[in-house]
């Protein structure tokens, strides 16, 4: 049997990787949870669809974030995709602000899972965390979607080139 030698590839610097990732436009989301471990929320652009059967999305959360143990212990969360105009809220949930101040800046409803739904979000996904996989510094939370709330009147918000950009719906252009 022949042994196939795998190529040894060079490492990419962390900053070069981040500069490259800044070229990828992404939706901006506030991920929330509330339960026995308490209430928490953080801004995340590392969110994407995994499969529609069962409806599942993933959220990548840095294990060094202050909110990490709260999400680990509650096991339920809501992905609130931000709309145009939510830039300040996104920055507030982007770190280093006390949790009470983050939540005081907007209006919320409680979902079946107990997680806070952001009033005026473009769309909200109420989820149960079905599986967690650790890769490097982050946990990948695979989230089964159990309820949806859409707000079809608002425009979208994207994070691109380290700044916010409004995404207008077709009929508004
Ligand atoms: N996946 C993540 O954990 C992300 C974290 N952030 C955090 O938000 C702050 C501002 O970010 P930017 O202004 O976009 O500038 P930045 O230079 O820190 O990041 C540029 C891009 O690299 C990626 N990135 C940043 N930190 C990462 C991490 N720890 N792991 C994996 N990918 C990462 C993201 O795609 C980000 O948009 C930073 O503290 C950054 O660490 C931002 C986006 C994603
Ligand atoms: C635009 C933006 C996108 C972010 N995306 C992520 C992400 O996908 N995953 C993540 O772990 N942190 C992300 N962060 C950083 C977290 O929001 C931040 O670490 C979190 O609020 C916890 O901060 P704390 O430890 O000060 O509480 C992002 C920040 C910003 C401003």
Automatic annotation (TrEMBL):
Residues 21-166 form the Flavin reductase like domain. Keywords: Flavoprotein, FMN, NAD, Oxidoreductase. It catalyses: FMNH2 + NAD(+) = FMN + NADH + 2 H(+). SUPFAM superfamilies: FMN-binding split barrel. Its EC number is 1.5.1.42. Gene3D superfamilies: Electron Transport, Fmn-binding Protein, Chain A. Catalyzes the reduction of FMN to FMNH2 which is used to reduce pyrimidine by RutA via the Rut pathway. Belongs to the non-flavoprotein flavin reductase family. RutF subfamily. PANTHER family: FLAVIN REDUCTASE, FMN REDUCTASE (NADH) RUTF. This is FMN reductase (NADH) RutF. It comes from Pantoea trifolii. The lineage of its organism: Bacteria, Pseudomonadati, Pseudomonadota, Gammaproteobacteria, Enterobacterales.
